[in-house]
Amino acid sequence: MTRFCYLLVIGWFWLPLMSHAAPVPAAQLSVEQQQWLAQHPELRVGLVLQAPYAKFDQRLQQLSGANVELMKWLAQALNVELRWRNYPDLAHLEAAARAGEIDLVPGLTQTPAGLRLWLFSDPYMRVPQLVVGERNGNGAVDLERLDSQTRVAVRMPSATAEFLRSSYPGLNLQGVPLERQALQLLLSQQATYAVIDEAQLSRLSVEPEFAGLAVVGDIGLPQLLRVATRRDWPQLAGIVERGLHAIPARDMEQLHARWLQPKYPHLGPSPGFWQNLSLLIGAVLLACMAIVYWQRRQQTALERALLSAREDIALRVASAEALRLTQFSIDQSPVGILWVNWDSHVRYANQAAEHMLGCAPGAVLERPLSDFEPGLTMDRWLGLWKRARASEDGAQRFESQCVRADGSTFPADITLSFLRFQAAEYLVVYLNDITERRRVQAALQESDARLQGIAANVPGLVFRLERSLLTGELDFPYISEGSESLAGFSPATLRKREVGLRSLVHPDDKADYHRVQDLALDSDSDWAWQGRIVTRDGQQRWAEIKAITRRLGDGTVVWDGIVWDISESKRIELELDSSRGQLRELSAHLESVREEEKARIAREVHDELGQMLTVLKLETSMCELAYADLDPGLRERLNSMKKLIAQLFQLVRDVATALRPPILDAGISSAIEWQAQRFEARTQIPCLVQVPEHLPPLSAAKEVGLFRILQEALTNVMRHAQAQTVELTLSIEQQSLCLTISDDGLGFVPATGRPTSFGLVGMRERVLMLGGTLSLHSVPGEGTTLNVRVPLVQPSK
């Protein structure tokens, strides 16, 4: 034990010397800075003699302290000579600076007043303000939980006291002029805690008087030490900044530990030493008795211990393996990870961060973050550090431009997270190269702008309707600006769930619109609708809506559609329909007039001409009786005249029948059977007829229309079909009269048939005039079927 203590003392003695002897790398200065140093080979350094920053040994006539050692390192890095100027306090030093007697001063804190006199470097050392209490206390102290009965000694006036008043208004502060008096109040139990900076505590803690004290907390207001240079020499400020960056961060930590961290003396025997020793001896005796008592069970306990040790070893091996896998995962992570200390120097970097920054393995360590992100100055970094340390659980995230080792830049997503590890504090910096994301965002923005331009030029309203996969709610995520010109409503108004496209539909057309849209929404299918809409100013317009459905990757159903104004085309269509209706009514009227005229002519031909022919036949017979015997040639001539009169009778009957068959007066069934018999007699083609026995009464127009359609159809069969058999069927189906004409002839392709088939056109027009429908089915080589369906009751207009 004595040898170990001896080696520990030797190590503690040699550690500062070894650290001091470590070479300091030269600063990387520009050509202009090197020329300036060549013109100023000697710099005057001002020091405030205050331990442990700077003190003068009268016996050795030598300066020492943290600031003295730092300036020697800086002089070695810059290759300059230093001339020391000592002052008792800061006021004398500032007076000397105003007189131009000094060039730079280490260990100053940046203040608004000091900025008028000096140029300050980035902080090179962080001196915390510590909370000191008795060594036998209860551990760390949280100042926010202290009540007003707990006295806290602090030097007043000072910035520390002002910070405690503003940050912890509930504290009972007791002011003292010196730090020593604050510690003495603590020892005399007139105060429970004392607040003192780390440097003064390092100076006072070596005294045996304060050996029983210990650090129990940190108020979170560190003193940041900087190097101040003459304000009229800005070149010197940049040179000092380069020199400070050239000093390794590890050397700065050793300098802080050697001069500023408290060093408590070895404690001697206390008054209760012998009592504690007696208790220890008694405990040893009891332990020996317990060992003897449990000797017989030692083997079993040892086996259990060995088993437990094996399990513990296995657990440690598993933990080590998990730690190795964790380290491997961090190293192989595609996200760049940096551990950075409060001075912004990197302490750890994974492979992704090194690759992202274009650095060799290990080249990122001990470098400040400003080398990779120029905008991250020391003051900005300290602000980020304070916010992260205050929140601890909240990450800070921002985007920036980072610089690679070759000078190229790349956009990065930076996330900062506070971390405590082995009594040290870090900010973990996560780097993500977002070059590809920026490219994709730019492409999406360009595509969106192109889509917006296309939608803006479409003569109508472009929309997207989405149905949520979870809730089933319908929303309009997009409606183009064409809604203003079409309906007078802005896209934002129509996108509201309670408005939508349904609110534009005319009240009389809403039922049809809901039917079409609900059917499409239920079946996830395309939908189309035509109807009237009402604009914002109450104007009615005809609109057509067409939407195409598709399903996204997450299952959401989307309808992409367009709404355009068809009022003009609808007006033309309605006018055309009206014109067609008028033409059809005119045609029906002409057909009716023609049939009536045919019937009148048939009656006149049958009645008038028949009577005249009858009288002529009687007169010829009278002539034959009276004069035939007088001249043998006269009888022959009269017989010839009678034959001509008979033929004329048949011709008159045929003309009257052609104009209007009298069989129509007996009903359409009889007319169909009569026409079939005439067709068979004329063409020698068998004609099969099926008609019902009883038919409801039909109007003369329907009977004549069906008969004329039958005549035209049989004429087409006779001319073109080359059929062997014809079937005629008349039936009643669902309040309609159906006439079917089928043949087994050649057939044809209706789509490629004769475009000038006026017979089929005439039949179709007749059916339309009767309010019915006509369908034609024909296959080449399989015959033709004509189906006519006429309602029994005329629909109301």
UniProtKB/TrEMBL annotation:
Coiled coil: none annotated. PANTHER family: NITRATE/NITRITE SENSOR PROTEIN NARX-RELATED (PTHR24421), OXYGEN SENSOR HISTIDINE KINASE NREB (PTHR24421:SF59). CDD domains: HATPase_UhpB-NarQ-NarX-like, PAS, PBP2_BvgS_HisK_like. Residues 600-794 form the Histidine kinase domain. The keyword Signal applies. Residues 447-524 form the PAS domain. Keywords: Kinase, Signal, Transferase, Two-component regulatory system. Pfam families: HATPase_c, HisKA_3, PAS_3, PAS_4, SBP_bac_3. Residues 396-446, 527-578 form the PAC domain. This is PAS domain S-box protein. PROSITE patterns: HIS_KIN (PS50109), PAC (PS50113), PAS (PS50112). Residues 1-21 form the signal peptide.
